[in-house]
């Protein structure tokens, strides 16, 4: 449906050479830390922001110079932007009124939308008298009555509290499936991105990093940035060395068996990415599984028991050259870690407690190896995507990413 | 208990200020009902000993007043209308657009508002005479506009700035042209600002005296404040004071009515609920 190459500049490049194809009916998420240009990109799609260069195509037509009203897109704003002087009914009807739609049709369509969003009993009220979630639904109602070619959402849930956010997330997902409308959704929240999207586009400083299904991004991130952004708690990055089929880490030396890792060859310094979920308490494992990796002893600093999970924190010393790189990454990802530590997610039945020494295990098969200088993932195999990805999304080969500095 | 005491203090203060402000007004009303021949009595009383309507009859039978009243209404309404429309567009541009010289424009407007009007009266008098608009409605409307616009632009641009940008962008995405977005979203939201500005401008034109007395010479364009100074009594032996008071009461009434009418509209907070709460 679209084939966008956009470059945007006002002093600095907010969005740099981004190409993205959104298929008809697809739910695409633009995600990245604050200031990565995702909102700018969305506003360029809808026409509120000028495109410096490149082409924006909707249904094959170039729309770069078209006014927002001629693009037939509808948008939900972060702060909803409801018209306070109009009732809920008139708010939803506003786009139809502008098109001079006949009165009975307006009524029918507004009621249809209101019913879908369970707003029927609020139609006569003013936005000021509604709760946050209701306002959010009114904004969505205004977007859907138009029967626009696509919906654009600009961080629609960021003003809601955590519980409501979860509910609205499901609501948006249900609505999109029901209507089958192409949707582009901007968020900085990786949970929203993972749960809502058919495909996710990760942006960093205006550059598209990777486009893929949630599964692809989780299992095969192209670089450190994507790896650190997707997943919660975030992936652990630890320094390591590859030599002679052995993986040396601050947590012992582990034999490497798989082709995937061998392909990397010998390297003096690499950054290893291991998800907290891929660690386990060695004492609770079956012997068979245990043999696939190498248990190691570690001093657990703090544990957090959440009922369904147990998080353990294991501090370690990292060489200075890696620390610097990792700190930079942390800053970009909007988080700030005070010390180098492993975050480990364990079986809640584990008896490991704060301050004790524990025998931990990790799955060497699922370790990602990153080049410390470029951040590139050295173990990402292109067949991984096609291997196990949910098959309902058509993805033409590797994502159409161009990352030129 | 402390809270109670402070609130008492506020009541006392309020009463004092009210008396201070209302006393001249009450006196004006009281005088306007006194008998013009006997209002200077040996034992002055605050309220008239005998209530009479003769002053009002005198005022309304005097063409000096009736024509002045007509002029006042006409000139004030036209000047206000123009000022509001022009100020609305100017303020919108200032609040929304970034153009070179914006700061200069705003400070110029302020400079005009600070300019002493008395210094302009002489030159204007000569100019108006040679242009042939001396003693006409236009001759008064132009200077009124000049001095009313700066304040109007400042107040309105403040109101426009409070309206979130997203409102307008949402309207545009919803299919509105720039003009439709302005008319259907921005103007209704800025209504309190528009009314406030309109009322302030109207009061200014209504009460203005210096230009009114200097740039007019006959009934053609003389407004009420200027006309009042030309009042005489029913006969030349009669003091005009009570009649002037009656005229003052008459010109005060529209102002009071306006304030009461629009008081409700001059409330901020119409934008409540537009964005996240």
Radius of gyration of chain B: 23 Å
* Global mean pLDDT of chain A: 81
Largest β sheet strand count, sense and barrel closure of chain B: none
Q: Report the span from N to C terminus of chain A.
A: 27 Å
Largest sheet of chain A: 6 strands, mixed
H/E series of chain B, N to C?
HHHHHHHHHHH
Q: What is the CATH fold-level name of chain B? A: MetI-like fold
Task: Report the structural category of chain A.
Answer: alpha+beta
What number of structural domains do the residues of chain B give?
Answer: 1
The low-confidence parts of chain B are 268-277
Shape of chain A: elongated
Describe the fold and architecture.
The complex is a heterodimer of chains A (about 400) and B (about 280). By secondary structure, chain A is an alpha+beta fold. Chain A folds into two domains: about 5-220, Rossmann fold; about 235-375, no CATH class. In chain A, about 30% of the residues lie in helices and about 25% in strands. Chain A is built from twelve helices and 21 strands. Chain A has helices spanning about 40-45, 90-100, 105-115, 130-145, 160-180, 190-195, 215-220, 225-230, 260, 285-290, 320-330, 385-390, and strands spanning about 5-10, 10-20, 25-30, 55-60, 60, 75, 150-155, 180-185, 200-205, 205-210, 235-245, 245-250, 250-255, 265-275, 280, 295-300, 300-305, 310-315, 340-345, 355-360, 370. In chain A, the strands form six sheets. Chain A has a six-stranded mixed β-sheet with strand order 6-7-8-3-9-10, with helices on both faces. In chain A, strands 13-12-11-14-21 form a five-stranded antiparallel β-sheet. In chain A, a hairpin with a 4-residue loop joins strand 17 and strand 18 (about 310-315). In chain A, helix 2 crosses helix 3, helix 2 runs parallel beside helix 4 and helix 3 (about 105-115) packs across helix 4. The longest helix of chain A has 18 residues, at about 160-180. The radius of gyration of chain A is 24 Å and the shape is elongated. Chain B has about 280 residues and is an all-alpha fold. Chain B has a single domain, classed as MetI-like (MetI-like fold, Orthogonal Bundle). Chain B has helices spanning about 1-30, 55-60, 65-95, 100-115, 120-130, 135-160, 165-175, 180-205, 210-215, 225-230, 240-260. In chain B, helix 6 (about 135-160) packs across helix 8, helix 7 packs across helix 8 and helix 8 packs antiparallel against helix 11 (about 240-260). The longest helix of chain B has about 35 residues, at about 65-95. Chain B starts with a helix and ends in a 15-residue tail after the last helix. Chains A and B meet through strand 6, helix 2 and helix 4 of A and helix 7 and helix 8 of B.
